[in-house]
Write a structure and sequence with these properties.
The structure holds two protein chains of two kinds. Helix content of chain A is 23%, strand content 31%. Chain A has five helices and 17 strands. Chain A is of the alpha+beta class. Chain A starts with 19 loop residues before the first helix and ends with a helix. Chain B is mainly α. The relative contact order of chain B is 0.10. The chains are: A alpha+beta, B mainly alpha. Chains A and B meet through helix 1, helix 2 and helix 3 of A and helix 2, helix 3, helix 5, helix 7 and helix 8 of B.
């Protein structure tokens, strides 16, 4: 046995020595069979963990229409338990909303409890409210986010549906523009929603495009945006990360970023006015000038954010 | 599937036993979120995390929820992993904290109000011995289910000491470090837990 194993003198001397009955119970506890685990759950979680795509368990919710429970990561509820859970959730939801209305504010279902609130708001301005977000798999109307009825927290998995981009702002720290169809984990500190003082921020892009500009509140922090095959590291800049079927690309409007493939054998610095494309199929990276339309979009984001960041 | 990594002692027996820490190079890979390293790390520690989660919650679904939350937190904090230290205490601390987070949530209060150990299909099968098996196997299954149910009924502070001591084989020094209690306190809790368990399992012990 190791040094950490149980020693005969581990029991507190003041305690009575274990009775034979307690010794038998101890032996039974030690000889319990290994807990059974569902191979499917294990495989799925391994795959997600290896791809840095594990999501926190979502608050109780029914499966989306047309989607079987087996397609979800957390499918194992009996019918009776589901009915009880749904009825209970409904009652609890009504009670919570009523309570918070009484307190003069609305609380948002679909947001992690106990999360320290690094919250993203929609940017005021040109965007319409007809978009729909999937936040950790739950549908949230952009209009509800804009109206403050829903918050979106750092560390949450967000997918933008609809036809218009959506700009999300974390105070004067970051402004992020999501392109429709994009899916990403919003940057924050470690541990999901993280905390506002976190200095090492992490986000993830699963697909699509995110454009990011850093503000004065970002000073002293670093940001890493990861995709399945690359990571982009920045200390303050205006840039876009595009994850498509070919690979991952970073376009830099201001400042400098560092992009690295997962294997660490490709990538490098990307300076203002340049774009670097990494490919999934092991083609060599392509370094080229930033495309005019991308530069224009990034410039617009920077200008919009700048007018808010600088009072 | 990732290959088993060198240095891991296969569980095989009733508990996960002691898991030798992976090589620092692998933990460095985890820090970099290298896919192969994450996969190996998962294979190395899944049984530990899931096992502790199951023993602490006494419920298969809750254990899977907890396991998922733990690996989510590990994923988010991977860059803070110290490659020179054994990750097991870190993982157990995350598991405890995640459990307390769940317990504090309204969702868990709801789930606990509507489920019991008897509702767990696996435990129910164990209790009923539904699968045809030799008598010895049936007796073992029933005994295990009763012991697990008794452990699950222990107060939280006693249960975690029992789980870490009997399931992981940890000594009280290490347990004390992880749960933030004194060595004497963990020993006291363990002794108290054995007494309570013996009372609960009186019928089984005859």
């Amino acid at each position: 046995m190791s040094d950490d194993s149980v020693r005969p003198d581990d029991r507190q001397p003041a305690d009575a020595p274990p009775t034979p009955r307690e010794q038998r119970v101890e032996a039974m506890a030690r000889s319990l069979a290994p807990p059974p685990s569902d191979p499917e759950f294990r495989e799925r979680l391994r795959d997600q963990f290896a791809g840095s795509r594990v999501a926190p368990t979502a608050p109780a919710a029914p499966p989306p229409p047309g989607r079987s429970r087996s397609a979800m990561l957390r499918p194992r509820f009996s019918r009776r338990r589901s009915i009880l859970a749904l009825a209970g959730a409904l009652a609890a939801g009504i009670a919570i909303v009523a309570l918070l209305r009484f307190n003069g504010r609305l609380h948002e279902p679909g947001v992690i409890e106990n999360a320290s609130p690094v919250a993203y708001d929609t940017a005021p301005g040109e965007l319409t409210d007809d978009g729909l977000l999937l936040v950790d798999g739950l549908e949230v109307a952009v209009a509800d986010v804009r109206a403050g009825r829903r918050r979106i927290l750092a560390g949450q998995d967000v997918e933008l549906r609809g036809t218009l981009p959506l700009e999300l702002v974390w105070d004067d720290v970051l402004a992020i523009e999501l392109v429709p169809g994009s899916r990403c984990t919003l940057p924050g500190g470690t541990g999901g929603a993280g905390d506002e003082s976190a200095t090492e921020l992490h986000g993830h892009i699963a697909r699509g495009e995110v454009r990011i500009v850093t503000g004065p509140g970002f000073s002293g922090r670093t940001l890493t945006i990861e995709s399945d095959d690359a990571s982009v590291h920045v200390v303050g800049t205006t840039f876009a990360v595009i994850r498509d079927s070919a690979g991952t690309c970073v376009c830099v409007e201001d400042g400098v970023t560092q992009i690295r493939s997962r294997e660490g054998n490709q990538g490098g610095r990307v300076v203002a006015g340049r774009r670097l494309q990494l490919f999934d199929d092991f083609r060599p990276p392509v370094d080229s000038p930033i495309r005019p339309e991308e530069a224009m979009k990034l410039g617009m984001l920077r200008d919009r954010a700048g007018s808010r960041f600088v009072p | 599937m990732a290959q088993p990594i060198k240095g891991i002692v296969p569980s095989g027996g009733p508990s996960v036993g002691r898991i030798e820490p992976p090589p620092p190079a692998l933990l460095e890979g985890v820090r970099r979120r290298d896919r192969a390293a994450l996969s190996s790390f998962f294979d190395c520690y899944f049984d530990l995390v899931h096992g502790v989660a199951y023993r602490l919650t006494g419920d298969r679904t809750a254990a899977e929820d907890l396991t998922q939350d733990v690996f989510y937190k590990v994923q988010m904090a991977a860059h803070t992993l110290d490659p020179t230290r054994d990750p097991a205490p870190w993982l157990v601390s995350i598991t405890r904290n995640a459990l307390y987070d769940q317990r504090r949530s309204a969702r868990d209060r709801l789930a606990r109000a509507s489920t019991s150990l008897d509702a767990d299909p696996l435990l129910r099968n164990q209790l009923r011995g539904s699968a045809p098996s030799p008598e010895e196997s049936l007796i073992r299954q029933k005994r295990d289910a009763s012991v697990q149910a008794a452990v699950a009924r222990l107060p939280e502070s006693l249960r975690e000491v029992v789980v870490l001591h009997t399931f992981l084989g940890w000594g009280h020094d290490r347990i004390a470090e992880v749960i933030g209690a004194s060595h004497a306190a963990t020993r006291k809790r363990y002794s108290r837990a054995l007494t309570v368990l013996a009372d609960m399992l009186e019928d089984l012990d005859r």
